[in-house]
Amino acid sequence: MSKKCNIYLKFFFKIPFKIIKVFMMFIRSIIFYFKIKKYKNIKKIIYTITPTPSLRNVGDHAQVIAIKKWFMKKFNEYLVLEFDKNEIYKYLNSIKKIVNKDDLIFLHSGGNLGDRGLWSENARRSIIENFPKNKIISLPQTIFFRDTQEGVKELEITKLIYNKHNDLTIIARDSYSFKLAKDYFPKCKISACPDFVLYLTPYDNINEERKNILLCLRNDPESIIDENLKGKIKKLIENLGEDYQEYDTTLNRNIPKEDREEELNISLDLFRKHKLIITDRFHGVIFSVITKTPCIALKTADHKLTESIKWFEDLNYIFYAKNYEQLPEIINKAIRIDQFNDINWKKLYFDDLKSKIFSNNL
Questions:
Q1: What pLDDT, in 10s, does the model give residues 31-87?
Q2: What is d(CA 326, CA 313) in angstroms, rounded to the nearest whole number?
Q3: Strand 213-216 relative to strand 189-192, pairing
Q4: In this structure, are residues 194 and 140 in contact, taking their beta carbons and an 8 Å threshold?
Q5: If we measure between CA atoms, which residue out of 8, 100, 98, 109 comes closest to residue 50?
Q6: Contacts of 214 (CB under 8 A, 6+ apart)
Q7: I need a labelling partner for 351 at 20 to 30 A (CA). Which of 8, 27, 91, 188 fits?
Q8: Structure pTM?
Q9: Inter-residue contact 218 to 248 (CB < 8 Å)
């Protein structure tokens, strides 16, 4: 190695790691910009804050699948560019360079408009602040800020940012979130709509015998089901002479964009093979609705599930158990259902959503 190369290497290794990291980020941003700059003069939708592959919840990725199908049906004159949460944090300045004032910005649906999902909420705030002249639509969200010092502080930040925007539409995912949105965001357009995964109905159900009970229970801070209660539920199922299988919509592997539909179909196939689902997962209920599988929903730490379950009050195979004591009776009732009523979700909620978004009558 030449003397000159040795000098360069010594100089390189003396540079602080933080400076190298910033420099590499700058280089990656330039590369990213040159990759997307061809879309500058194209009529487009910026669909953003979508789940990264490391967000392993099938429900989150199912929302992307459904929303993109809705875009294809209702916004086929637009090119849709998807940017996930990481890309917003890394490349927002590059994305800003290709966005025109007539481009639409859609923010991904979910249950993170609150202080417990600040990774998502901070990204949402950043988009709203950085695109003041664009029409922005926040797709169906559960809204929940805790009644704590931190929760109150974060709510005030969100209210300040959202209410400053000139054309921001907030779509709530349940009636309680709708009331909160009306209160928190008086300068925004407010609407309500059920979870977008329902847009995927009807799901093709293969006519096969259903067996056993599927326990689809959370293993995160939103769960209020401890190991003791979980054990009681399993014992109850065994005492009723039934077998069960355990599953969670959060997988133990990443979900790359190209694998989303395959992973969703695996989950839906599992649901439709069981005679009953017991779940405290919101998308556990949604997957049951899509596959017409009897389901008992259990309470969680916030109103995400207890309020959203109201969308399904007219479905004879979806139940809500307020406590463990109600389970035996509801299980016996649910596993005996042999005819399932239906709701045309597309016609009721999604077909005219575009016109609602662009009207002034929300």
A1: 888 899 999 999 999 999 999 999 999 999 999 999 999 999 999 999 999 999 999
A2: 17
A3: unpaired
A4: yes
A5: 109
A6: 244, 245, 246, 247, 270, 271, 274, 276, 277, 278, 279
A7: 188
A8: 0.89
A9: yes
